[in-house]
Give the backbone structure.
Amino acid sequence: MALLAVGSVALDSLETPFGQRDEVLGGSACYFSAAASFFGPTRVVAVVGEDFPQAHLDFLASRGVDLAGVVRKPGRTFRWKGRYEFDLNTAHTLDTQLNVFADFKPDLPAAYRDSEYVFLGNIDPELQRAVLDQVRAPRLVACDTMNFWITSKRESLEKTLRRVDLLFVNDAEARQLSGEHSIVKAAARILAMGPRALVIKRGEYGALYFSGREVFAASAYPVPDVFDPTGAGDSFAGGFMGYLARARDESPLAMRRAVVVGSVLASFAVEQFSLDRLRTLTADEIRGRYAEARQLAHFDDLEPDVLEARR
């Protein structure tokens, strides 16, 4: 298994109806690699400032995350501050300080260039392509993006999409990128842009997977206590890609399992602030919740005589 993640490492300050936390561990690369680490080691390329706590790096290293690609630069670490309303569906950004992340130029260590599975986190699409220029022969490349890049760097993003196999977006981003209100039509238009597969994350409503004529819908696991949705999408992607890299299988059945695995990891991530739930999570808990998710989605065929015959 050779899984590479390129993205942000951040210090987040969060406000939700259930509490507040200041300068806790965040960033796409952290959530992704922590979730993927349950399936095998993950290589991370990112940048942090002089003020980034060593304890956070020690935690990721303890999970088997390869941090040779994390560079510490003079200056302050990327910071994000956000607030969530009661429904927890939308994050309101209160403050963004790019700091050392503003000059982030992904430079892959030589040992990383043979990575077979690559996740391009939510960064400038030009930087996403710069990563692909450094990877020799990836088996599967997935990327994430957001409304900011769709609006401000549309042409560059489309160039990136022509070079990736899989795209992760939420339903609002899918509509914005495609110009279609219908999610099904949006998926078809996005797939025509280049990716051979698409995952549309729908928060508490689950996820949809599209590839050619293959469509799979997975409901979200009904979590009774959601404290912090930050990083749920990256945890989903980490579970998804971590499972595929471990299985070395991209068949339709493997993709369906990966969607459910991703949903399971995301369901755990939201149960506590920051990455705190992923710190205590066990493999047995993941297996147990996967089994529950499978049972929740199971249903039998209709009885042969359940519908009245009409002449």
